[in-house]
Description:
Blueprint: H1 2-18, E1 27-33, H2 38-48, H3 55-59, E2 62-66, E3 86-91, E4 94-100, H4 105-118
Parallel strand pairs: 1-2
Antiparallel strand pairs: 1-3, 3-4
Amino acid sequence: MKQFIASVFLTALITVGAAGPVSAGDIRLVMAEEQGCVWCERWNTEIAAKYPKTPEGKAAPLVRMDIHGTRPAGYEFARRISYTPTFLLMVNGIEVSRIEGYPGEDFFWPLLADMLTRAGIDWKTTG
Length: 127
């Protein structure tokens, strides 16, 4: 079963990447968080203020959601969100990739860049 899910997820990544550049209006980075999450606070301290000013932030504007709250309308996640923070790259309302947890600023940016690139998003020239 895990292999099947991984296969479907990989196919979705390849399909999105093969489709060519995606329009900026259809791309979002959803941050699933919860009150009291130490790693969410660390992300807020290290990244939140500068994120919208970066090429990545312009290519995939941030949408915040409480892990215990209602899912934002129009979004379809590949699987349940279990950890906070979880960052979900959404293209046309469909999850194409995710980062579970916050590994620190030095790792966050390369992981996000890889997610955007694999999804076929031309994030380096956005903005």
